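Dock iron/sulfur cluster; give full complex structure.
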Amino acid sequence: MGNKLVAEIAWDIDQNQFKEQVRQMIAMARKGNNVLTLPIGPSLESILLILSQVNCDGCDAICCRVSPPDEMVAMTPSEYKMLCEKYGDEGMVSTRLGGAIKMPCRFLKNKHCSIYPERPLACVVFPMQPGGACGASFDSQPLEALAVASYCPEGRKITKAVYMTMWQIKQKIQAIGFEEASELLSKRN
Ligand code: SF4
Ligand code: SF4
């Protein structure tokens, strides 16, 4: 995982300015191999929603070939043991927390994962990354947040979509007032 980049977002600017601000934030994160923090708190539901938007069609499996400097795919002790027993330890190392797969990953064959059903959890949830404090929360208070790897094209696309959608919702809520908005959003029809 790259370093965390906590972006201070100015929400009260027009849509084009905001879009440019998000574009710069993404470019900066990509350049520095930072993770992109999303204005979303961590929960299983939000992780599922983010991951359901990832479409790897057409990608060259960047995440299985390269990684931020000195990084590897982390594994739990049981994942490391299972893969070593089944495939041998070539291309993998033991770590304090379990094990890790070196990049490029030995299991990548013809741009596909050859152990797909058995791949480590870190691969299943990629491009999700631990996010740290989110400077872009609704109330400007530090908030634990989800984040995505900036070197993943889908992570960048999702970041842009999430921030732009958040900006639109914030504008509407500010225009009609929080109470009216809450009432409307809580109605089923
Ligand atoms: S880098 Fe992102 S888009 Fe490409 S294969 Fe990995 S998860 Fe999919
Ligand atoms: S185990 Fe599979 S999904 Fe994970 S990095 Fe290797 S090839 Fe990619």
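Observed: The CA atoms of residues 75 and 99 lie 5 Å apart.
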